[in-house]
Amino acid sequence: MEYKSSGDGSPALVGFFDDLVRCETRLYNALNDRLRERHGIVTSQYEFLRRLRDHPGARVADLATEFAIGIGATSKGIDRLEKRGWVVRRPNPADRRSSLLELTEAGAELAEAAARTFGECLAELLGGTFEGERLAVAARAMGELRAALERGQVGVPTG
Asked: Which string of DSSP letters, residue by residue, matches 59-90?
């Protein structure tokens, strides 16, 4: 896509931002709908479950950092998963002020089933547009952008 000047001196960046945000929103919403329909969860809940599946013993603060969201919002999200029996909090032997999070058996089963749905939906949504080398180039560019933002502590919530 070619970006035209929007009068702010950086038309390519503004256009890229617009496309990036609108694509993210549409993908997130589509994944939300599919996960809700098949598993009764939303994308943010799946992301927590997936992260805990891959990193058992993470803390709420670890999740907040990973997803660049506030600790309060993260804790509330974990509370919801805990109430549904998918996550348990265990005492942290290294720091009594925090808990270590683990998936329950039901949470692990849900994470696996939702991972299949998530992967199928992503392939369906992106498959015709991003495959092979195009996907590799786009993934590399997004990874580099994310790494630069994280190194600079850009967009880190204050609460």
From this structure: -HHHHHHHHT--HHHHHHHHHHHHHTTSEEEE
* Planar angle of CA 142, 138, 136, nearest 5 degrees: 115
52: helix, strand or coil: helix
- Per-residue confidence in pLDDT tens, the chain, 159 aa: 555 555 565 778 889 899 999 999 999 999 999 999 999 999 999 999 999 999 999 999 999 999 999 999 999 999 999 999 999 999 999 988 889 999 999 999 999 999 999 999 999 999 888 888 888 999 999 999 999 999 998 888 875
Integer CA distances (angstroms), 98 to 67, 141, 157, in order: 18, 35, 19
- Placement of tokens 């496309």 in the chain: 19
What 79-82 contacts at long range (C-beta under 8 Å, 24+ apart), as own/partner pairs, is 80/45, 81/45, 81/48, 81/49, 81/107
Query: Which residues neighbour 151 within 8 Å (Cβ) at sequence distance 6 or greater?
Result: none
